[in-house]
Design goal:
With about 325 residues, this protein is of the alpha/beta class. The protein is built from 13 helices and 13 strands. It has helices at about 5-15, 75-85, 115-120, 135-140, 160-170, 175-190, 225-230, 235-240, 250-255, 265-270, 275-280, 290, 310-320; strands at about 50-55, 60, 70, 105-110, 110, 125-130, 145-150, 200-210, 215-220, 235, 245-250, 260-265, 295-300. β8 and β9 (about 215-220) form a beta hairpin.
Length: about 325
């Protein structure tokens, strides 16, 4: 998940994000495919020790990888898909896929609990530059646990980079290359499903948490631009001049963005009362997307992960985005 969105998630957790009214039946498909990862065939054996460069600038030596604690859903997904899921000792709250569901959670909201992590005696902790609080991460390092920091995902170009960073740290570089190749090949195939007829649809990414009264529109840096463009669309927020990653949603911003479709997370859509509630947000009904009730909804835990399941996300977005045109 992108760094910008992780920051927003942390803020909305602090202010009480959550469910809301049950979603009314939307006209668009609600989620992606089954919430499972697909591991590579033949689990690799880590060749350790290895020393790698962390995104925070330090060198990290990994001597064992029997008990791995990834502190983001995206990093968990990579470890499991590399075929090393049986070595994962815990999960972050954003690791929502089925194979990780029974693991203990070591985050409170979106903050890491150092005590919970250390109680599991990990050999290696995987984190992102946005993982925090800093005091908790310092406490984990002070206990002598190697911590590899990976740059957060910002777009499709980061898929292979992040997979290889994790694979190299786990001593399975060949598996990392295999997974990178598979992921990029599938993303390319998914992008070929985009109908190339007519004008490109303008798509606005909205981050919604109705119970916390949080309504934001994504701009440059939200992390959604790459996905929208791969689906054959134009990021309406970024193209309308929104330079911040997220901006408070207003009628004026929506009118200027003039989206033909709206991209949302499934729980965000549910939190505002489904499609009917979304259209009731001031300004939405006056947009082409609101008038056509053209909404693309994808499961929260995978939408902007930019990892091994991004091809599934892209296929789902394309399918929903062009449904009324008889698209893929």
């Amino acid at each position: 998940m992108t760094g910008a969105l992780l920051t927003v998630l942390a803020l909305t957790t602090a202010t009480g994000c959550g469910g809301g009214a049950p979603a009314s039946a939307p006209s668009a498909e609600a989620t992606t495919t089954a919430n499972r990862v697909e591991p590579l065939t033949g689990a690799p054996t880590p060749e350790l020790p290895v020393t790698v460069t962390s995104a925070d600038g330090g060198k990290v030596t990994v001597e064992r990888a029997e008990r791995i604690v990834p502190l983001s859903g995206s990093l968990s997904e990579i470890v499991f898909t590399l075929g090393l899921g049986d070595r994962v000792a815990a999960r972050d709250i954003t690791a929502t896929f089925a194979q990780a569901s029974k693991l203990p959670v070591v985050t409170r909201g979106h903050d890491v609990s150092a005590e919970s992590v250390l109680s599991l005696k990990p050999d290696l902790v995987l984190a992102e530059t946005t993982t925090g609080p800093e005091e908790a991460m310092d406490q984990i390092r002070a206990a002598g646990v190697p911590v590899l920091v990976v740059d957060p995902a910002g777009g499709l170009d980061d898929v292979g980079t992040r997979i290889r960073a994790v694979a190299d740290a786990l001593g399975v570089p060949k598996a990392g290359e295999r997974l990178t190749s598979r992921s990029e090949r599938r993303i390319t195939a998914a992008s070929r499903r985009v109908p190339h007829t007519g004008e490109k649809p303008r798509v606005a990414f909205l981050y919604l948490r109705g119970s916390a009264s949080v309504y934001l529109i994504g701009g440059k840096g939200s992390g959604a631009t790459s996905l929208i463009e791969a689906a054959g669309g134009i990021d309406a927020g970024a193209e309308s001049g929104l330079t911040k990653d997220f901006t408070a949603l207003t009628s004026e911003a929506l009118v200027k963005a003039a989206p033909d479709a709206i991209l949302v997370m499934a729980k965000g859509l549910e939190s505002v009362g489904g499609l009917d509630g979304l259209v009731g947000i001031p300004g939405v009904a006056q947009t082409p997307a609101g008038m056509d009730r053209r909404v693309v909804s994808v499961e929260d835990g995978v939408l902007l992960n930019y990892g091994p399941r991004t091809d599934q996300v892209l296929k789902s977005v394309v399918r929903q985005l062009y449904a009324k045109d008889g698209g893929a």
